[in-house]
Amino acid sequence: MPANTVLTTAVLGSGLLGLDLIERMQHSPHLTCGLVVGRTRHSRGLDQAAELGCTTAAGGVTALIESEQSFDIVFDATNAFEHPDHWGRLASTGTVLIDLTPTRGSALIVPTVNGGQSAEHQHIGLVSCGGQAAIPVLHALAQRYRPQYVEMVATAASVSVGRASRLNLDEYVETTQGAIRHFTRTLAVKTMLNISAAEPPPPFRVTMTMVAPGVKQGPVSAIVEEAEAGVRTVVPGYRVTSCTVAGDIVRVIAEVTATRSRMPVHAGNLEVLSAAAVYAAEQHALVPKEIVR
């Protein structure tokens, strides 16, 4: 497929996450936004999408289907309860559906871990914001050591966690735990999400704990630094703030600061997802269509 291929996309969801996707696509040489769909016609998000030059519609996935337009990529930035229906209605169209909700059942993609496989799949899941921030480090460590236990605690500012995310907390925990098990080959995994009402709002943070025999500070620090550098190529606001080894226990803390113009600085939880979504979509423009399953 030529390097100048441009894919037409649609965005389901007109919240802050959907608006950031639009802005990213406007700076992408491979993606163009053909439609933004919200729930109600006169929502603030749809008005802002229109101001960005996008065609908009109200009525959810039904409006998208009834638009009779053809989309190469659809981004689902709604919620985990609605996503299975969206996939059920779009699967037969051949559209690639990229899921930004914590729903299980799709091919899980983390850009710096297996992002090169994005173009092989029609139904892509991005785990969760915590999964995107933690899995690159945990996966890298698990390539050298054999983890016996992994724990990830994510902390997000209350003002950056919308209603849909609050309704999907159980799905968030289950999907993130399953993904960490998959990418680290560890059975004993625990995931938690804290929603902080602190003022000023804190940056998005993930605290990772891994129990693995034979860990040493020097090699662990080198592995974590390399993983951090990789993530920063996709999410510039990502940084590791602490990496310590005590006995068989590794503890790593990473923060994600939002750097996009529409994102408050504390909304790193949203930025890490939208960056991964656009990365996965662009892979479909860079790889021959024939290989997509």
In words, what does this structure look like?
The chain has 293 residues and is of the alpha/beta class. It folds into two domains: 7-126 and 272-291, NAD(P)-binding Rossmann-like Domain (Rossmann fold); 129-266, 2-Layer Sandwich (Dihydrodipicolinate Reductase, domain 2). Helices cover 38% and strands 25% of the residues. It is built from ten helices and twelve strands. It has helices at residues 16-26, 44-51, 60-66, 83-90, 111-114, 129-144, 163-167, 169-184, 217-232, 268-286, and strands at 7-12, 31-38, 56-58, 73-76, 96-99, 107-108, 123-125, 149-157, 189-196, 204-211, 238-246, 249-256. The strands form two sheets. It has a seven-stranded parallel β-sheet with strand order 3-2-1-4-5-7-6, sandwiched between helices. The chain has a five-stranded mixed β-sheet with strand order 9-8-10-12-11. α6 (129-144) packs parallel to α8 and α6 (129-144) packs across α10 (268-286). It is globular, with a radius of gyration of 19 Å. The two termini are 16 Å apart. 50% of the residues are buried. The mean pLDDT is 94.
